[in-house]
């Protein structure tokens, strides 16, 4: 059980002050530039993936790359929910965020984050069908079924975000209003509540734990079957290509789940490392995803070369 120091209900909080990332004042300009560049590169990198999947017929006809396009779209929005607010904290602009703005930020962060969690699971399932049941794959994972699965992930993510936002802000907030974090997230906001937060902490632990653990176990199950199927492939080139299509996905799953587990499955933690870990999966991971898929995925690199070659030939004709 944790209560804020001021339990008077005479004052109702109408806004919050985001204290942001602790930093030496001398580095403010440098950090502003670093996060600004990261944000721009994140948007451009994910937009490049999105446009490549849309423009190349060989990619947007395959469910795996439809899912990759959706992942890039989610990364662009997730970064936009968090990073601009971080950048503002390095300027003289007020660090105040309205109560409604805080609710919206928490909702969209968990909505987009949980949708990503479900999407990673769908990507693992897609790879399982492609490698373990290649003859039935075109029937089992057609465009219509892929659209249904993606829609289900969005709906489930929205429900999850609504539950977390409703539970967090149903509590009274009567001061103080300084959020010791760089965005409105469940643990730092709950520390300001003027009521018992033990139920919220339990529900958050169970809810996020069940979602993350279920998705992670399904991913592990999919890849256990994938590895078993790959080891049966006779040619080394065939095994290498099969592992290549899975390597990128396994990498992004790792950089997504490990920080989330560190942050949310340690109820009541106030570790100073939480902020650094949160920066990694909210700021760095959306930047890394397009790099991982372009550097490690041969199909995406080939598509980029085809698009570049096509534009070159058009310019020559002109």
Basic shape: globular
Kindly report the name of the CATH homologous superfamily.
Answer: Rhodopsin 7-helix transmembrane proteins
Radius of gyration (CA) equals: 22 Å
Number of strands: 3
Strand line-up across the major sheet:
2-1-3
Helix proportion of residues, in percent?
Answer: over 70%
CATH topology-level name = Rhopdopsin 7-helix transmembrane proteins
CATH class, named: Mainly Alpha
Beta-strand percentage? under 5%
Kindly give the count of domains: 1
Average of pLDDT: 82
Helix/strand/pairing category: mainly alpha
| Uncertain spans | 1-9, 312-318
Q: Cα distance, first to last residue? A: 71 Å
Question: What order do the helices and strands follow?
Answer: EHHHEHHHEHHHHH
Which CATH architecture would you pick? Up-down Bundle
Biggest beta-sheet profile: 3 strands, mixed
Number of helical elements: 11
Walk me through the structure.
It is a single chain. This protein has 318 residues and is mainly α. The chain is built from 11 helices and 3 strands. It has helices spanning 28-55, 57-60, 63-88, 99-132, 137-140, 143-169, 186-190, 198-231, 236-264, 273-296, 298-317, and strands at residues 15-18, 96-98, 178-179. The chain has a 3-stranded mixed beta sheet. The longest helix has 34 residues, at 99-132. The termini are far apart. One of its GO terms (molecular function) is G protein-coupled receptor activity. It is a multi-pass membrane protein. Residues 45-293 form the G-protein coupled receptors family 1 profile domain. It is found in: Cell membrane.
């Amino acid at each position: 059980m944790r209560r804020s120091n001021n339990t008077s209900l005479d004052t109702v909080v109408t806004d919050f002050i985001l204290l942001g990332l602790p930093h030496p004042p001398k580095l403010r300009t440098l950090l502003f530039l670093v996060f600004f560049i990261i944000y721009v590169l994140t948007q451009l990198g994910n937009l490049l993936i999105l446009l490549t999947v849309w423009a190349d017929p060989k990619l947007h006809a395959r469910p795996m790359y439809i899912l990759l396009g959706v992942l890039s779209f989610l990364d662009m929005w997730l970064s936009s929910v968090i990073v601009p607010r971080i950048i503002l904290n390095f300027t003289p602009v007020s660090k105040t965020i309205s109560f409604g703005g805080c609710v919206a930020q928490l909702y969209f962060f968990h909505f987009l984050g949980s949708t990503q969690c479900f999407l990673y699971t769908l990507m693992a399932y897609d790879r399982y069908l492609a490698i373990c049941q290649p003859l039935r794959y075109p029937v089992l994972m057609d465009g219509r079924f892929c659209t249904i699965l993606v829609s289900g992930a969005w709906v489930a993510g929205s429900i999850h975000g609504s539950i977390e936002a409703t539970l967090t802000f149903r509590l009274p907030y009567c001061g103080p209003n300084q959020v010791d974090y760089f965005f409105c997230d469940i643990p730092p906001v709950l520390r300001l509540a003027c009521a018992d937060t033990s139920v919220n902490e339990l529900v958050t632990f169970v809810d996020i734990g069940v979602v993350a653990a279920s998705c992670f176990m399904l991913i592990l199950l999919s890849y256990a079957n994938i590895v078993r199927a790959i080891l049966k492939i006779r040619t080394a080139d065939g095994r290498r290509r099969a592992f290549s299509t899975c390597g990128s996905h396994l990498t992004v799953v790792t950089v997504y789940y490990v920080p989330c587990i560190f942050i949310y499955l340690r109820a009541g933690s106030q570790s100073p490392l939480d902020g650094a870990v949160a920066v990694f999966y909210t700021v760095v991971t959306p930047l890394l995803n397009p790099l991982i898929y372009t550097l490690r995925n041969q199909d995406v690199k080939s598509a980029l070369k085809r698009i570049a070659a096509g534009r070159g030939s058009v310019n020559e004709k002109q």
